[in-house]
Design goal:
The chain is about 80% helix and about 0% strand. The longest helix has about 50 residues.
Amino acid sequence: MNTMDNNGLDKYLNLFERISSIIEQSKQKIVSTINTEMVCCYWEIGKEIIEEEQKGSERAEYGKAIIENLSKNLITTFGKGYSQRNLWSFRQFYLTYQKVNALRAELSWTHS
């Protein structure tokens, strides 16, 4: 490694700090984007469940069976984040924010 004088070391440290700042800002944007996409994913899942339930004749039992079956299959395919409890929460989340514009307004804080 080349030896640096104090001026060279200062320039290098300044460069290192600038690049570190770029990396940290990018990491924050990535986390924000992922969080926003996951929220939208959960909303879409809730929407799909509600729309499917509304086609069923016996909604309460039909909805329960849908959630149970979906949970089993989704856990097998995608992991434990799709428990029955989570699917019921996604469903409720959609019911709370049925209008996508209301959801986007709530998520606007994530886009800085």
